[in-house]
Write a sequence for this structure.
């Protein structure tokens, strides 16, 4: 059901303002897909874009749209798309190796690379889903891969791990809804589908993002890697693996807590370290993004007091 034209116009501006935080102009198709808290057909979105451009609220260039006064972002996106294309083969290569680790059930690319918006810092963010009771063991093995990649000049950031028991995200806000819908899975189609289904709350923020805009880039494990995964899981499935899991969680969680800035531990958008979640988002990136979004809404007269505070 399409909303009234003036509501669609406001939603288009809100969607562009959110992307503007990341210096990211959008195509009309992307605006339609990620339209914030509003339903509209593609034809209606395009009509409102034309009206907004005629009123000098937005600028258009080569099929992309940005908030007025931000025309420099068109070249920025072109350059970042080029950088991202160079990084994707590395993401698939190292994502395959992460997938081959014992007890890893899903590997997804998140962050800037997921939307081909890689800036000057070309790191690759991963979300990993693990089997229950082996999250910290998986993390330790993933960090070993991170160090191996670093020696080859590749920056991997597996900074969010959850088990199959915690596929439903605790934080329900626009930032997390975007992170989920933009994620590009590389491995673990079944776990990815379950995660998608268990986070239906995302529709409250992005009601038209009913499927991924970027197609999944699933990789296949070679017979050698499959054998490695099977045999290491068998070796670590019993008491030895359980003891290693407890020891690693206690050891590493203590260290991470000591490193955490005051006030960030336990906050849903920042740092969580327990048996089912290892979320090491130091610096409160999600919180800062939502604050920046709220500031933009206020500046453009679109603030309604719900976008930032809205929780379920």
């Amino acid at each position: 059901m399409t909303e009234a034209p003036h509501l669609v116009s406001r939603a288009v501006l809100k969607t562009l303002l959110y992307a503007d935080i990341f210096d990211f102009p959008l195509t009309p198709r992307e605006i339609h897909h990620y339209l914030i808290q509003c339903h509209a057909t593609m034809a209606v979105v395009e009509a409102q874009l034309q009206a907004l451009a005629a009123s000098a609220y937005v600028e258009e260039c080569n099929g992309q749209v940005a908030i007025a006064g931000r025309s420099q972002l068109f070249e920025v996106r072109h350059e970042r798309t080029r950088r991202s294309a160079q990084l994707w083969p590395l993401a698939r290569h190292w994502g395959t190796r992460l997938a081959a680790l014992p007890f890893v059930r899903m590997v997804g690319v998140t962050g800037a690379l997921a939307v081909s918006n890689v800036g000057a810092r070309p790191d690759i963010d991963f979300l990993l889903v693990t089997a229950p009771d082996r999250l910290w063991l998986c993390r330790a093995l993933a960090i070993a891969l991170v160090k191996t990649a670093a020696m080859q000049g590749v920056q991997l950031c597996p900074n969010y791990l959850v088990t199959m028991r915690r596929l439903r995200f605790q934080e329900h806000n626009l930032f997390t809804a975007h992170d989920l819908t933009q994620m590009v899975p590389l491995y673990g189609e079944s776990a990815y589908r379950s995660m998608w289904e268990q986070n239906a709350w995302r529709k409250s923020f992005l009601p038209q993002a009913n499927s991924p805009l970027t197609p999944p880039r699933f990789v296949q494990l070679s017979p050698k890697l499959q054998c490695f995964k099977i045999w290491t899981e068998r070796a670590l499935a019993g008491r030895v693996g359980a003891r290693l899991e407890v020891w690693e969680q206690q050891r590493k969680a203590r260290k991470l807590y000591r490193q955490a800035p005051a006030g960030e531990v336990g906050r849903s958008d920042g740092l969580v370290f327990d048996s089912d979640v290892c979320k090491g988002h130091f610096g409160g990136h999600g919180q800062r993004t939502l604050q920046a979004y709220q500031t933009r809404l206020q500046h453009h007269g679109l603030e309604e007091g719900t976008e930032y505070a809205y929780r379920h």
Summary: The longest helix spans residues 73-99. The radius of gyration is 21 Å. The longest strand covers residues 155-163. The chain has a mean pLDDT of 91.
